[in-house]
Amino acid sequence: MLYDRKSLEEIIQSQESWTKEELNKLLARFPERDVRFTTISDLEIPRLVSPEALPEFDYDQELGFPGSYPYTRGVQPSMYRGRLWTMRQFAGFGTPEDTNQRFRFLLNQGQTGLSVAFHYPTLMGYDSDHPRSLGEVGKCGVAVDSLRDMEVMFEGIPLDKVTTSMTINGPAGILLAMYIVVAEKQGVPADKIGGTIQNDILKEYIAQKSWIFPPRPSMRIITDILSYCTHNVPRWNTISISGYHIREAGSTAVQELAFTLADGIGYVQAGIDAGLDVDDFAPRLSFFFNAHSDFFEEIAKYRAARRIWARVMKERFGAKKAASLKLRFHSQTAGCSLTAQQPINNVVRTTTQALSAVLGGTQSLHTNSMDETLALPTEGAVTVALRTQQIIAEETGVVHTIDPLGGSYFVEWLTNKMEADAMKYIEKIDDLGGIIPAIEVGYPQKEIGDAAYHYQGQVEKNEKIVVGVNKYCKEEEIPFSLLKIDEEVAHTQVANLQEVKRKRDEQKVQAQLKRIAEVARSEGNLMECFVDAVREYCTQGEIIEVLRGVFGEHRDPGML
Amino acid sequence: MTEQRKIRVLIAKPGLDGHDRGAKIVARSLRDAGMEVIYTGLHQTPEMIVSAAIQEDVDAIGMSIMSGAHNVLMPVVVEGLAEKNAQDIAVFGGGIIPEDDIPDLKEKGIKAVFTPGTPTADIITWIKENISPK
User: Fold this and answer.
1) pTM of the complete model
2) How high is the ipTM of this complex?
3) Least CB-CB distance to B16: which of A132, A374, A560?
4) Domain, as residue range, for B100
């Protein structure tokens, strides 16, 4: 406990007299500003938090030391004094050739890990020549159809030296298979590569909406990947359980926290149900959170996330290894907070958001570029975004001590509040039968939709201020040029795909696709099949097409 | 006394893009402003949108695209309506659309384009001023 009973009573007494003698007298003459003091998620914030609000606070129970249970203060004993977070900018556009150049540029600028953005057709399991890919090729990310594209994208980048994160979900196993084969061709065996596939299908149904199959067969593919990687790719993070997209879809901070951890609980349960030992796969689960604008709310969110996860893994799932209890996370500043108006202001927003992620103990970080409400970022804009991280790391001094806000009455109060509110949501989801039934009845989707609509209403009534949008507005021209991706990219990509199809051994391709259909219908491990299939240059669209035939497709219920 | 028909709007998400926060907020706002709103859900082809618009007998289609496919997909919907003799259905759009692309979209028959930060009230006003129920 922070204070013994007698000291606490004395503090409470002095607080009462301060309120009477100082505060109330002042407020009688000078009232507070006429605004609601709430977080961006509309959580009411007290004027002052003193020891009175934390009477039962127990250091060992609530915080512990960094690298020790319940990991509230951080997952490593030395945190950034040992190693800085990985600076990992999400990048990808146009052809694999274009993206290879951007990757090399970023690595030359001091970036320390790669993160691939795929274009929509790849995310949805279509090749670039599919009718559904019309207008989308290379626009929102890089076009990847076959192993050839992965070979080009990582040309000259040593996969034993860099780790790579891939934002891919429905087709995650196929893209990981391609990465494994590219590494193999570089002479790097699968047990030496490191990185992450997002592979978090549950949040696709909840928020990001790039799904392919219905939830249950999707979970089967995921457990096949967990099992394969445990044995063959031990340094790979097999699921990046993501709150980022939940928040971008308009959730509150507490909803982001709760639904993300509920998804995590769903994956752990699925792994156990598939017969895996929790301590075999849990250490390779990682997380991905949003770094939004409300500074302390975000820091409290990360601290609460670590504490809840440690408790859930230990108490609910009986995990024994320390690595199974540690919530490691990537963070990205909030795309939805950026404004198209006066876009240079976005640099400032990104800076404070990034600072909250660092003070919250992130393991890796992406900082958004100022031009991202308008287009994919230019090289100039992404350099400023990367420099923002480098300035925080090298100039501000915040990295010198671990969890510098630990013990702040306000931050500890808010951390407790976030934990308690998130647990209410998690209990509600348990009552609904777990996260999959909850998704099937649209529960998290509706909560998020309502929160998004509520926030938009507040902005339009000027109850929440967005600088340049509803206050301090001014007409101005966009002060920089934007990255443009023309339709020529699609022509090049389709021509390259046709070339691949001409050169490969068609008989071997058909045999691999047939085997995938058979294994999908039975019990074998699909991930093994993916590795063999991509080696023969089966395209991701062809493999997904076969799986669609077996598993069916998920469709948007279109709820409002 | 005959009650005037309400304005009917189809809010549509063409292409593969899954960002539906904006589309849903606009759909709810139009409904709260007294319009009848049909939401297509995600991942619609231009053909699906044209056929839903005709079937639902709407006065306007609002399309939301964040993926950069607007230059290709939005005009295809306008052409599709014309082919079915349904050019009286007004088409407007929104999303991550650079200013430079807007003149060309307007030339191809997109009546209005609403970019990030637009208050929903502006969209409602534009619809009320430019679209009358059949």
Assistant:
1) 0.96
2) 0.94
3) A132
4) 8-124
